[in-house]
């Protein structure tokens, strides 16, 4: 599919509706006035752009995710803007060891007591990435296939047989796009051939806000790590203590950087690096008590409506990029305000009511409407406010 921009030229409208620029008769449009066009493809719900001018588009290089082509496979997609570097994002996503600790009882599967040594088996290393299997030592029959396809695709797939003897599949797909130094964009797709009955009835905004929680639990650590890399400017093996029982993929990723980092504007590898000549200012995500105060602020600036975009704030990190969550925010804001107005009207009517019975009915209605307004406000808070653990500091 070809996408091109069509320019309408600029002169007064004539009979056929076209306009043209003020060029001499037969004059050519300057080359610098022409927009570049790119080949795009829609593959499995993701739009890919072919950026190369030197080589023709090659559809064989489109990432193809086999689980997503299976019958009955469904997925939930969310998008996030994150305040740390693309490489730190990828490194975090391919680190299964931190999940039971950092995300204890947040994503419905992570439990602190499940933390254990992991096993790894690297089966492929190329200039385009690496792949291999990993699993937990207590359940060695459950082997996850992890694959990194440079520069932006990471997948983790678990295939297993359920209690009825049917083959099932769970897959997590992460599409990571650099957005500049210290910034990245992420599309997350969690999918499975089996869908929980609870997930079928929960609204999409609730599942999205739970996904946001997971990234907020890591955000303080990772943005701090971003600052350390830029400040120290040494290879990661001098900063990290990589353990064979948990950090194999992290080390593989940084070693891949050693092999392929020369094709990037800057990189931090396992044994080598090319730091940016002028490091951008990286704002650390708030942590501890500061994070609690920051997360309690209204997402859109409180009294006014103007608020500087801040990627440490969930509203600007997720909601502004998500059509569904934006619609939910607008809907629940309208409902909250309507219920509040009706509650106030019911109170005023109860004052004017002639009988005690009507006063009681109107006051009860006011209480119900006020509770509904409060419930809508609670939903808005879930959608837009950062999650902060109260029992421990980040």
Automatic annotation (TrEMBL):
The keyword RNA-binding does not apply. Pfam families: PaO. GO terms for biological process: protein targeting to chloroplast. GO terms for cellular component: chloroplast. Keywords: Membrane, Transit peptide, Transmembrane, Transmembrane helix. Gene3D superfamilies: Naphthalene 1,2-dioxygenase Alpha Subunit, Chain A, domain 1. InterPro entries: Cholesterol_7-desaturase (IPR050584), PaO (IPR013626). This is Pheophorbide a oxygenase domain-containing protein.
């Amino acid at each position: 599919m070809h996408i091109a921009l069509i320019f309408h030229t600029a002169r007064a409208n004539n009979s056929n509706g076209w306009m043209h620029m003020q060029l001499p008769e037969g004059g050519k449009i300057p080359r610098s006035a022409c927009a570049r066009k790119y080949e795009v493809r829609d593959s499995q719900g993701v739009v890919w752009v072919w950026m190369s001018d030197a080589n023709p588009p090659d559809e064989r290089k489109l990432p193809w995710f086999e689980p997503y082509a299976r019958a009955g496979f469904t997925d939930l997609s969310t998008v996030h803007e994150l305040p740390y570097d693309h490489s730190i994002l990828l490194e975090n996503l391919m680190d299964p060891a931190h999940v039971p600790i950092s995300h204890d009882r947040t994503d419905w599967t992570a439990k602190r007591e499940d933390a254990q040594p992991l096993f790894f088996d690297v089966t492929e290393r190329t200039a385009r990435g690496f792949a291999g299997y990993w699993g937990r030592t207590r359940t060695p029959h459950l082997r996850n296939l992890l694959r990194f396809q440079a520069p932006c695709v990471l997948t983790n797939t678990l295939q297993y047989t359920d209690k009825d003897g049917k083959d099932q599949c769970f897959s997590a797909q992460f599409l990571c796009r650099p957005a500049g130094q210290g910034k990245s964009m992420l599309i997350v797709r969690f999918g499975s051939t089996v869908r929980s009955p609870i997930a079928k009835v929960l609204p999409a905004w609730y599942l999205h806000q739970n996904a946001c929680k997971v990234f907020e639990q890591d955000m303080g650590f990772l943005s701090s790590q971003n600052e350390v890399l830029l400040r120290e400017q040494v290879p990661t093996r001098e900063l990290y203590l990589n353990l064979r029982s948990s950090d194999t993929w992290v080390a593989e990723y940084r070693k891949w950087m050693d092999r392929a980092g020369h094709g990037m504007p800057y990189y931090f590898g396992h044994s080598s690096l090319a730091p940016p000549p002028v490091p951008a200012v990286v704002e650390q995500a708030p942590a501890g008590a500061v994070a609690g105060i920051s997360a309690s602020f209204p997402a859109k600036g409180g009294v006014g409506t103007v608020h500087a975009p801040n990627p440490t704030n969930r509203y600007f990190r997720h909601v502004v990029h998500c059509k569904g969550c934006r619609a939910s925010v607008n809907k629940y804001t309208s409902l909250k305000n309507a219920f509040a107005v009706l509650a106030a009207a019911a109170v005023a009517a109860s004052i004017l009511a002639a009988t005690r019975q009507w006063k009681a009915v109107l006051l009860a209605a006011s209480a119900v409407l006020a509770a509904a307004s409060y419930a809508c406000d609670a939903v808005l808070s879930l959608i837009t406010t950062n999650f902060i653990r109260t029992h421990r500091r980040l």
